[in-house]
Amino acid sequence: MTLVYQSTRDAQNTVTASQAILQGLAADGGLFTPIAFPELELDFESLKDASYQEVAKLVLAAFLDDFTEEELDYCIDNAYDGKFDTAVIAPLIKLNDQYNLELFHGSTIAFKDMALSILPYLLTTSAKKQGVDNKIVILTATSGDTGKAAMAGFADVPGTEIIVFYPKDGVSKIQELQMTTQIGANTHVVAIDGNFDDAQTHVKQMFNDKELGAKLLANHAQFSSANSMNIGRLIPQVVYYVYAYAQLLKTGAIQNGDHINFAVPTGNFGNILAAYYARQIGLPVGRLVCASNENNVLTDFFKSGIYDKKREFHVTTSPSMDILVSSNLERLIFHLLGNNSAKTKELMEALLEKGEYRLENADAAILELFAADFATEKETAAEIKRIYDSTHYIEDPHTAVASAVYHNYKLATDDKNPGVIVSTASPYKFPRVTVAAVTEEDSQDDFTAIADLQKISGTAVPKAVAGLKTAPVLHKNVVAAADMQKAVEAYLGL
Ligand SMILES: *Cc1c(COP(=O)(O)O)cnc(C)c1O
């Protein structure tokens, strides 16, 4: 039996896993979503001794059930390798009475690497399975982090080419260096004279340009997207929840069958949705704590059932959570409504047209699984300090949001389940903010802050930032926004 992935907005639009990965977003604007969950036996007595790759194989085989064993091995072995600076891939650290699941040991020291290191292989394998032998060309406009993580994932993956555009004056010095020093013959980075919206607009135009599409096809190439709504990014995130449970069992922190909670710093709702999927395949999950920063639209949603994006946008120290429309929430809404695509479509259109929707007749059992709250900027900085003062461990601001929210959750409830804080970035990605939180002093610049952070935390500077100051700049192309397409055609020899 093959698992059915259905668009959240059209019951007639159903595909297999590999078709869903190749298409990315459904043509009707919906998201491909499993309408039933695979049944598999999570035998933790044996899983506790399994490697990350072995757990990945079990989970991916269940969800991506039209892939062969060889295909999955190829994808997993190429994704979770020496790019990660630890063989365990996702270490679980005990800090006082909480556990931090570190998802920042990949190329760009943030959790996007967990999925973006395997997506290129899932995408090219899916293409082959569908009889498509075109080169897959990824075009991305980035305001900093996603472009770099995507490039690191696609670098030197056979059958792919990636072109990233960023606003010349719209990213930090460190972010720019991370991109312009990217190695890989199939990677291309272009600064544009313009802002992020200009870059985004032109990328969208190129995606929709039929003439350009035909030119690509004539050259055996086609565009694709590494977008976070792709099921090929969501499913690999289920793996580390199962892995974390196995590690807790292994260390004796829990007994087999005990329930555990996860606190997840949330933006687009992809990471926490993966935790929900882990529960649906049998992981003993107690509560999923959805943590937001001052952009607390999800907190209000879980408390009131009303999703209202009409509010002030806050720029915070946890920028990857500065989001007012959490795209992946659409999948949870679909499940909450009993996989009702007509109703989901209605709500999503209301969000677009009126800026809000109200949940009625939602599955209360699913809703009760979630708790939600937010941390202010002040509370986030205080949490970094609180954890540092008692453990000498430094959390990044995103992780600290979840950590603070979970700390309050425990004070407010008598929930005794062990809690895992999903730790989504290394503090070295946000050196100034983290150092300032601990020392209450501002650093001169990012590089000084990195040195200070090393001193204070006693941890090694990760490769992703250590070599940046001296790494050769390989990408120097700057073009006008209007000339982006010319740059693409030149790279692809069209
Ligand atoms: C993307 C990101 C998040 C938010 O994850 P979602 O899946 O979008 O909810 C949190 N922290 C960091 C560091 C991120 O990069």
UniProtKB/TrEMBL annotation:
<dbReference type="GO" id="GO:0009088">
    <property type="term" value="P:threonine biosynthetic process"/>
</dbReference>
<dbReference type="Pfam" id="PF14821">
    <property type="entry name" value="Thr_synth_N"/>
</dbReference>
<comment type="similarity">
    <text>Belongs to the threonine synthase family.</text>
</comment>
<dbReference type="InterPro" id="IPR004450">
    <property type="entry name" value="Thr_synthase-like"/>
</dbReference>
<protein>
    <recommendedName>
        <fullName>Threonine synthase</fullName>
        <ecNumber>4.2.3.1</ecNumber>
    </recommendedName>
</protein>
<feature type="domain" description="Tryptophan synthase beta chain-like PALP">
    <location>
        <begin position="101"/>
        <end position="342"/>
    </location>
</feature>
<dbReference type="GO" id="GO:0004795">
    <property type="term" value="F:threonine synthase activity"/>
</dbReference>
<dbReference type="InterPro" id="IPR001926">
    <property type="entry name" value="TrpB-like_PALP"/>
</dbReference>
<feature type="modified residue" description="N6-(pyridoxal phosphate)lysine">
    <location>
        <position position="112"/>
    </location>
</feature>
<dbReference type="InterPro" id="IPR029144">
    <property type="entry name" value="Thr_synth_N"/>
</dbReference>
<dbReference type="Pfam" id="PF00291">
    <property type="entry name" value="PALP"/>
</dbReference>
<feature type="domain" description="Threonine synthase N-terminal">
    <location>
        <begin position="5"/>
        <end position="80"/>
    </location>
</feature>
<keyword id="KW-0663">Pyridoxal phosphate</keyword>
<keyword id="KW-0456">Lyase</keyword>
<dbReference type="InterPro" id="IPR037158">
    <property type="entry name" value="Thr_synth_N_sf"/>
</dbReference>
<dbReference type="InterPro" id="IPR036052">
    <property type="entry name" value="TrpB-like_PALP_sf"/>
</dbReference>
<dbReference type="GO" id="GO:0005737">
    <property type="term" value="C:cytoplasm"/>
</dbReference>
